[in-house]
UniProtKB/TrEMBL annotation:
Keywords: Activator, DNA-binding, Transcription, Transcription regulation
Family stated for the protein in its record: Belongs to the LysR transcriptional regulatory family.
SUPFAM superfamilies linked to this entry: Periplasmic binding protein-like II (SSF53850), Winged helix' DNA-binding domain (SSF46785)
Signal peptide: none
UniProt entry tagged with the keyword DNA-binding: yes
Pfam family, one: LysR_substrate
Protein name: LysR substrate-binding domain-containing protein
UniProt-listed InterPro entries: LysR_HTH_N (IPR000847), LysR_subst-bd (IPR005119), WH-like_DNA-bd_sf (IPR036388), WH_DNA-bd_sf (IPR036390)
Keyword Nucleotide-binding part of the UniProt annotation: no
Length: 309
């Protein structure tokens, strides 16, 4: 078995086509197919199923794909460790941030890495927590900020922040109220984030237990548009505090606590159990945690720090 065979196999699975993998790897398609055949012979099992629509991994292929990712990641890490011995933390570090967290500390993270970790190439992926958890488990991210702790055992989930969920409306629509129950909120015209979304699933679980059916106006999977729609008076929404700090400080929105402030979301700083972090990733991990704590302490993020508990 050769490393290039694993590299070729991983690429074929990722793009779902031998011809597309051939183009991206700059390897002739017959040679690529031959290497995969040798790999299947070496392992004594069929790894790919071929059809007119492309190729898909067999059950054995899925298992080999995951192991091959781990092996290739470790090879890359070994190369980085050797280079870091002389020049300090260096190389790529991939960080996953949900859009709400990006708005609070994304710019600060880019600036700090540029200024203090000059040999590190930061790669930030923004997306929903569920997507980031999948990428982290696959070794495509070095660390991620997540909201859902129901992921598989392949992740280390460290609690760092508890933040309140707020009912949000256009300016002037919640005057005179400082809190509301979810029962009351169910009767209001609502604009909610599309599934899968941890906030959406949690509040719907509570409504279902009470036999309530919310008055849904629209589901919007574009966070910026959702907040714009709320600000325009098209409906109300339930959002975490960190998504709103800038607009609340400018007085562009009204926001009140839900369930007397008891309805909260837990934020986790997460890494993989399977992929050992590089020295550069460890430095970025410490930096992310520090920036999150500073955002809480300075009031930029309305939440409670949990990491020292």
């Amino acid at each position: 078995m050769e490393l290039r065979q694993l590299k070729y196999f991983v690429r074929i699975v990722e793009v779902g086509s031998v011809s597309r993998a051939s183009q991206s790897l700059h390897v002739a398609q017959p040679a690529l197919s031959l290497q995969i055949s040798h790999l299947e012979e070496e392992l004594g099992t069929k790894l790919l199923t071929r059809s007119v629509r492309g190729v898909t991994p067999t059950d054995a292929g899925v298992a080999v794909y995951r192991q091959a990712q781990l092996i290739l990641k470790q090879i890359e890490a070994t190369q980085l460790i050797a280079s870091q011995a002389d020049i300090g933390p260096a190389g790529p570090v991939a960080v996953g941030l949900p859009w709400t967290v990006t708005s609070v500390m994304g710019l600060s993270l880019v600036r700090e890495v540029r200024d203090s970790l000059k040999s590190v190439r930061l790669e930030i992926t923004e997306g929903p927590s569920s997507m980031l958890a999948t990428l982290l488990a696959q070794g495509k991210l070095d660390l991620a900020v997540l909201f859902d702790n129901t992921t598989d055992g392949g992740l280390i989930m460290k609690k760092v922040v508890a933040e309140p969920l707020l009912l949000v409306g256009a300016k002037g629509t919640l005057v005179g109220r400082d809190a509301m129950t979810l029962t009351e909120a169910a009767g209001m015209p609502l604009l909610l984030l599309s599934r899968p979304n941890g906030i959406r699933e949690e509040i719907e679980r509570i409504w279902a237990a009470q036999g309530l059916k919310p008055q849904m106006i629209a589901e919007i999977n574009a966070p910026g548009l959702l907040i714009d729609a709320v600000q325009a008076g098209l409906g109300f929404s339930v959002l975490p505090s960190c998504a709103l700090e800038d607009r609340l400080q400018k007085g562009e929105l009204d926001a009140i606590a839900l369930e007397g402030g008891a309805l909260t979301r837990t934020v986790y700083l997460s890494t993989s159990r399977l992929f050992a972090p590089t020295r550069a990733a460890e430095h970025v991990h410490a930096l992310v945690e520090r920036l999150m704590r500073e955002a809480i302490e300075t009031g930029k993020w309305n939440g409670r720090w949990l990491a020292d508990a």
